[in-house]
Specification:
The complex is a heterodimer of chains A (493) and B (233). Chain A is mostly helical. Chain A has helices at residues 3-8, 17-61, 74-106, 113-138, 152-171, 180-205, 212-245, 252-265, 281-293, 295-309, 320-343, 345-351, 355-385, 392-424, 431-468, 476-483. Chain B has a single domain (45-220), classed as Orthogonal Bundle (Cytochrome Bc1 Complex, Chain D, domain 2), CATH 1.10.760.10. The chains are: A mainly alpha (493), B mainly alpha (233).
Chain lengths: 493, 233
């Protein structure tokens, strides 16, 4: 079927406010099950990933803990944690947000929901196979790509379904204006399969020789962050800040600058993970230079978001979406600056190989991305389920636990990493003494993890409670959207 | 930026740039690297690992040793790697020619293992260390690997010759012994094979007074120290 023919299937554009609201409600309703499946399965993986994280963290200061089982040895639980939170929680909630944003920004109802549901089933299947594979000992030991080669094609197939669906939706868009978020979403959807297939082919299917593997590994691993999670996180920030505060993005030109400089520089960053390593200097140097160039997109985006929020910070008190998203946006700036610094050779000399990198990764993946996803879910969930969040206290508990846990995780561990690095570079200090120096911080990390876990449980309880409420006044807001009688219909307040 | 095709091309070309630069170019430069042949001794470095050590590499991969142990030595004066005795020279691309997968590692929660075979080739020490690191390195946070060992009742012919010599509090209850499984022995063989102290044109070993050049014998990954005990069963 040709594009015009497909487009003819939809009713013409509507201009009046009530009509637009009705259209939004129609789009949200069409997204209901597909987005819900991705969010809920993502949250399931988040809980499992949190549990694995706690086990991993405890093993570092209680090495005898669960040592009897080969399935639960540190070197397997740690990659199992990474893969469940990265591909289980983060990617699935990213896909959920992506689907919903794509439909809303293109102003097209979700079509062919069956494809999305099938993709969800395959994604979870591939991931289950992959994580069990890691635990039984089939991990590839290639960081960020630990899932064995018999699991990853299932994930790739699932991803292909989503990307094809998204691109068709994009082609059928009724909205002529492309919003910033769409640039980022489209880019992420196209970049990820390229990264993933290159890494799979060159590392698992037909492994390249020697340290070329390391180059491909870090080109991939850093780009998963930079070209998959970052664009989707930024797309959500660009959408939700203006949406919640009711004011457009401050500067269109800064958005353009931010997008294209990220596209140009981020993908060259990966090899700064190999500073001092056995690769030719030019490869590492070029990545260090590109890492410093990341200052341009990061500062452009930070200024743009900050000035959009200017004068509206008091709204943080009322909207959980805004709170999570703004914290996420701030963490994006912080983690990027930390990343630029630790890419420098003089800093890397100290912080490389230490817990500093772990803290940095969590500031990025948790402080930035996960917080943005939480914020997005607080906004999207009531709209697709037509139910209000049942408990404000649980929302508060979730937010404060996340924030406290995050600070308690990142700040001490970043500091510990520097101490550890300095001690390690002083050859006179015995290695076991270096290890002993990190122990209090590793214990503190477990405490931080417990606080984060409590936050996740509060979040999950709220969602279960919400889904249990079927009838009652929660149908009300729909009618309000349709008739346009109330300005803020269902808000995740 | 409302023109879809332009956006599409921009997205593709930006990633294509680093795909060429950081994936294809490294493969072009390093993908054809060959082992070094010593002009006088004809010794070849690096050599592929012998069977048992190679199987140990699989255990190393499977247990995720990489998450705490790196295998790379940074250059002299950059960090404390050489000063700590983790290597006599920096590691270079050629050192990893036959590693599948290459496990450079990004964490040093434990010490670097690039040249572990040169530092500590004693089989007995390594087996005890794997059985419970507290025996050999009190205060270590390395996990114990009891599942690489078999605890069995001592038969009427007396204790097995390959049983670990353990003393309290690490010894099992009376009448039992701890015997390494095949995986434990292979893993130790792999650890003993980790050696890179060979002079290469691109990375030579700094000569110090009274220090002869590294023997090329180490290039063959030949095991040193006591012969390995037989596996369980």
């Amino acid at each position: 079927m040709s594009v015009p023919a497909l487009k003819a299937l939809f009713p013409g554009d509507v201009q009046d406010t009530a009509g637009r609201r009705a259209q939004l409600a129609e789009i949200d309703a069409s997204c209901r099950w597909p987005v819900l499946y991705f969010f809920l399965s993502g949250l399931g993986w988040l809980l499992l990933g949190t549990l694995l994280a706690l086990v991993t963290s405890m093993k570092l200061h209680l090495p005898d803990f669960l040592a009897e089982s080969s399935w639960l040895t540190f070197g397997r639980v740690r990659p199992a944690h990474l893969n469940t939170v990265i591909y289980g929680f983060a990617s699935q909630s990213a896909i959920g947000v992506c689907i919903w944003l794509m439909c809303r920004l293109c102003r097209v109802p979700l079509m062919a929901a069956g494809i999305i549901l099938a993709a969800n089933v395959f994604w979870n299947l591939g991931l289950t196979v992959g994580v069990v594979g890691i635990l039984v000992g089939d991990s590839t030991a290639i960081e960020w790509l630990e899932m064995p080669a018999y699991a990853t094609p299932i994930l790739f197939f699932s991803y292909a379904l989503i990307a094809v669906w998204a691109i068709i939706t994009f082609r059928l868009r009724r909205e002529k204006q492309l919003y910033v978020s769409q640039w980022y979403l489209l880019a992420a959807l196209l970049w990820f399969p390229w990264l993933y297939s290159t890494a799979q082919i060159m590392l698992l299917i037909q492994p390249v020789r020697g340290v070329v593997q390391a180059a491909v590994n870090w080109w991939f691993a850093h780009n998963v962050l930079g070209l998959w999670f970052t664009p989707i996180g930024l797309a959500a920030i660009y959408y939700f800040i203006p949406k919640v505060i009711g004011r457009p993005i401050r500067s269109y030109y800064l958005s353009v600058l931010g997008f294209w400089s990220l596209a140009l520089f981020y993908n060259w960053n990966g090899l700064h993970h190999l500073v001092g390593g056995p690769l030719p200097a030019w490869m590492i140097t070029i990545s260090v230079v590109a890492s410093v160039m990341m200052l341009i997109p990061v500062i452009a985006v930070a200024i743009n978001h900050h000035y959009t929020m200017w004068g509206h910070f008091h709204k943080l008190r009322y909207s959980p979406t805004l709170r999570f998203i703004v914290v996420g946006a701030m963490c994006y700036t912080l983690t990027s600056l930390q990343g630029v610094a630790s890419a420098l050779r003089s800093v890397s000399e100290v912080t490389h190989f230490t817990h500093h990198t772990i803290a940095h990764a969590h500031l990025g993946m948790y402080g930035f991305f996960t917080m943005v996803m939480f914020g997005s879910i607080y906004y999207i969930f009531p709209r697709i389920t037509l139910r209000e969040w049942p408990s404000q206290s649980l929302i508060s508990a979730h937010f404060w636990a996340c924030l406290l846990g995050l600070v308690l995780y990142v700040v001490p561990l970043s500091y510990a990493g520097v101490l550890q690095g300095l001690a390690m570079n002083t050859a006179e200090i015995p290695f076991l003494k270096v290890v002993a120096g990190t122990l209090p911080f590793l214990q503190l990390r477990t405490l931080a993890g417990l606080i984060l876990a409590a936050g996740h449980v509060a979040f999950f309880a709220n969602i279960v409670w919400m889904l249990c409420r079927v009838l009652g006044p929660y149908q009300q807001p729909v009618r309000m959207i349709l008739t346009g009688t109330q300005q803020t219909a269902v808000a995740g307040k | 930026m409302n023109y879809g095709p332009l956006l599409f091309l921009g997205i593709l070309f930006t990633l294509a740039s680093s795909w060429v630069g950081l994936v294809l170019m490294p493969n072009r430069q390093l993908g054809t690297l060959t082992p070094h042949v010593n002009a006088t001794t004809s010794a070849i470095y690096p050599a592929a690992r012998a069977g048992e050590a190679q199987q140990g590499a699989e255990t190393y991969r499977s247990l995720g040793c990489i998450y705490c142990h790196s295998q790379q030595v940074r250059p002299e004066g950059f960090g404390g790697d050489i000063a700590r005795g983790w290597g006599k020279r920096r590691t270079v691309s050629r050192d990893y020619l036959f590693d599948k997968p290459v496990q450079l590692g990004t964490s040093r929660t434990g010490p670097d293992l690039t040249n572990f075979g040169e530092r500590n080739g004693a089989v007995d020490w390594n087996l005890k260390h794997l059985y419970n690191p507290q025996i050999t390195s009190p205060g270590s946070i390395m996990p114990a690997y009891p599942f690489l060992f078999e605890k069995r009742r001592i038969g009427k012919n007396g204790a097995s010759t390959n049983a670990l010599a353990l003393i309290a509090p690490f010894a099992p209850e009376a009448g039992y012994e701890i015997v390494p499984k095949m995986e434990a022995l292979q893993l130790v063989e792999y650890l003993r094979s980790l050696k890179t102290s060979v002079d290469l044109p691109e990375a030579s070993i700094k000569k110090t007074e009274g220090d002869a050049a590294a023997p090329d014998a180490s290039a063959t990954n030949a095991p040193t120290g006591a012969p390995a005990p037989a596996p369980a069963k």
